[in-house]
Amino acid sequence: MKYIIREMYPQEYPLLAEFLYESIFQRENETPFPKTIIQNPELQVYIQDFGTLKDDFCLCAEVDHKLAGAVWVRNVHGYGNIDDETPEFAISLFKEYRGCGIGTELMRQMLELLKEKGYEKVSLSVQKENYALRMYESLGFKAVIDKDEEFIMEYRF
To answer: How large is the angle between the packed helices 132-139 and 102-116, nearest 10 degrees?
Structure first.
C-alpha cells in the first residue's frame, strides 16, 4: 500500500476527534463505546485546542489523498503522563489501514521529529491486550509503570 507521511495541516485538526475515538482500545466481540465517549474531559485533553500548546505536534498518513491515520503528541496530564516535561503519544489508524506498517512508520517519524526538537523522552499508555504493544516495544519503548490492565511506557532519546 502506497502512502505518504506528512505534517497534519491545522485545518485538518478537527479530524483528531475521529482519530481519538479510533485510538481507544476496544476488545473484539464487545459492544463498541459510543462515539460520545471522546467528550469525556480525560479524553478531551488529547485534542482540545490542538495546535495551541508548544509541545503539540501531529503527523498523518495519507493514502490516495485520504487521511488514513495520525500520530500526535502533547504535554498533558493524560493516561500516559509520567511528568510535566514529557509529551505523550496518541496514535490511530482507521481499521482498513491497520497491519500495513503505517503505524510503525508514523511512530518512527514522530520519534525522529521529537529527537530533532531536543526532547529527552516521550511516553504513552497502552492496554496490555492491545496488539500495538508489540510495535511500541519493537520501536524501543519500555514499560515504566505496570497498572492492572495497562502499561505506561517511555522512550528515551
So the answer is: 40
